[in-house]
């Protein structure tokens, strides 16, 4: 009798799915919704629009998610925490965890309704570059980044003296050899670089180089590709290198990436990575999307990202509120 009921119940479900496709989609969404315990999203090109802002629509969906579900919300970005905190505050976002510097830092928010600040967060995971590695990078970059002849600007990269510039994130500070004016607009007004010119390469003489969580290089992609090859040859066991943008090469400690950080956060939450839905658009999101049980690539993503993640679903662009619309479909849609 039980076998008969099971068999016929299954056939009935198949028939219902054939007759009512929308019901089938709703059931599938319900199944996915029931399996998701955490949402993890990149910021630039994903959750934020092209003006580096969050739309009212997306913010309302995230607030509803927090109010009506027990799902944990996490942001994961390549940006440093000193830039991310005021940006999140301006956007009205209060994630449970904040992954920054491509996984080198993870902060837990202790919400008090006054935004995201250093005094209401605590570092729960930190992976710094070794001071000896920072010294080597600066030594190599000092010579290899120098321009031997003038050249035209590449996109937003307008450097007069170097093929690429070198940026060091040390604690809340940002040191750079040659600043790029356009990059100021891409960061929060409360977080701006200190241009040191050649003095950057003298840092090891008077700075212990502790608490350096990320170094990034901005320049033409071809020059950065050559630089990446050099670093991989000399410091392969000390660095993780990722292009977060064709004109930006990120360097963090070996073994550090967003995917590892997601796994570490899941461990703190008592979750399996299979219970995570992750959204991203850049190559530095690849590891995060690869480990997540439910991966979503933005329609505006680097085309190579989708190629490397054939099982990931594609959602709308960041300017179309792609993340929010997918969340609405998963958690609040009855159709």
Give a quick precis of the structure:
Its cofactor is Mg(2+). This protein is of the alpha/beta class and 335 residues long.
Given the helix and strand composition, which structural class is it?
Answer: alpha/beta
- CATH architecture title of the largest domain: 3-Layer(aba) Sandwich
Put simply, the count of helices is 12
- By oligomeric state, this entry counts as single chain
Terminal-residue CA separation = 34 Å
Please state roughly what percent of the residues sit in beta strands, choosing from under 5%, 5-15%, 15-25%, 25-35%, 35-45% or over 45%.
15-25%
Query: Which overall shape is indicated by the principal axes computed on the Cα atoms?
Result: globular
Count of distinct strands: 14
Mean pLDDT score: 88
Signal peptide: 1-26
Cofactor: Mg(2+)
Protein name: Haloacid dehalogenase-like hydrolase/Sucrose-6F-phosphate phosphohydrolase, putative
GO molecular function: hydrolase activity; metal ion binding
Task: Give structural notes.
Pfam families: Hydrolase_3. Its cofactor is Mg(2+). With 335 residues, the chain is α/β, with parallel strands linked by helices. It has two domains: 30-127 and 257-332, 3-Layer(aba) Sandwich (Rossmann fold), CATH 3.40.50.1000; 131-253, 2-Layer Sandwich (Hypothetical Protein, Haloacid Dehalogenase-like Hydrolase, Chain: A, domain 2). The chain is built from twelve helices and 14 strands. It has helices at residues 2-19, 21-35, 43-47, 56-68, 81-91, 131-144, 181-185, 221-235, 258-269, 286-291, 303-308, 322-331; strands at 38-41, 72-76, 97-100, 105-109, 121-126, 164-170, 173-176, 194-195, 212-219, 239-245, 248-253, 276-280, 294-298, 313-315. Helix 5 (81-91) links the parallel strand 2 (72-76) and strand 3. Mean pLDDT is 88; it is low at 1-7 and 23-31.
